[in-house]
Amino acid sequence: MRWSFRVARIAGIEIKIHVTFFLLLAWIGFGYHRAGGMLAAIDGLLFVVLIFVCVLLHELGHALAAARYGIKTPDITLLPIGGVARLERMPEKPSEEIVVTIAGPAVNVVIAAVLWIGIGLTGGFPDPQALHQTGLPMSVRLLAVNVWLVIFNAIPAFPMDGGRLLRALLAMRMNYARATQIAASIGQGIAFLFFILGLWWNPMLILIAVFVYFGANSEAVFAQMRSVSRDLRVSAAMVTQFQSLPEDATLNEAVEALLRTSQHEFPITASDGRVRGILTRDDMIAALRKSGAGTPVTEVMRTDIPSVHQSMLFERAFAVMQQCRCPALPVLDSVGHLVGLFTPENVGEMIMVQSALGARGDRR
Ligand SMILES: [Zn+2]
To answer: Residues with catalytic annotation?
Structure first.
């Protein structure tokens, strides 16, 4: 995710904080300071930081459970709306997905239980009558937060854990795509309900409704991709009619090719047919501005883009593309020659075609 800062590394997982999170802190600090001075500001900030520690532990719960099945988690990002653990892939078996999903909220249950016991041992819960003078102690507020995190995540709608759990339970009885579709529809029904309730009760629910609605949508698209591409190979979906540029080309030739074709990314190939790099439109334009049209393409091309083999599974190549956020991947044959390009547009078109066929019931 862009605009995220690395703050720590736990069990090989990078912990990142999104810049908007600091804005949230500043906003809360200001608000509390204006209302109650310095002490209130410190108390408010500490509370928010502790909430996010609980969210982080929740995400680590997912990540460590996934690690049990050999699934790595490259990073966890903390956003003002919560945490996102980016798992390398989702578990294949529904039973594994259930364990990975439950592990997050289970962490909050444990935290809440520890707080509950701690509060009980150290003098118990405050007298409700005295509350309006002192406010709730931090430990009680944190207990409430963890209970809320469990309840919120139990809502059976994507992107909450409850949605994943529902999908995994359904997937034990039907195929993954169908299970996702049903879970997504239930989620969107709940979003609709929240929206209506939000209109005359609490506007916060409207926000959640929007969040859930789009979460369900993107999850459904991803599951569709997974199911349509189950046994497809990269070669079935790659672009085979494309323009590549020789390694001795200059930006001038690249610009010509850019204008002449509808392509935005150009593979740069050596005379033996091997790929040297990929020239993207953005890099091309930036270099034109900086060093002119006579610049050799080899100075501007990206060499960090991974290539994929034509017989690789579509789903794996898709994961590679997502991980590097590459605009196009070169596709190679068994002797390492460039035979195609794998692009996000390809993926989109493949999904459209396959789901149209699937809807007619003659999917392979
Ligand atoms: Zn979770």
So the answer is: 59
The rounded Å distance from CA 78 to ligand 1 centre is 12
Q: How far is the CA of 60 from the centre of ligand 1 (A)?
A: 9
Ligand 1 centroid to Cα of residue 105, in Å, is 6
pLDDT band at 235 (very low <50, low <70, confident <90, very high): confident
For 284-327, the pLDDT digits (tens) are 898 988 888 888 999 989 888 888 988 888 877 887 887 777 88
CA 86–ligand 1 middle distance (angstroms):
11
Q: pTM for the whole thing?
A: 0.66
Amino acid at 333: D
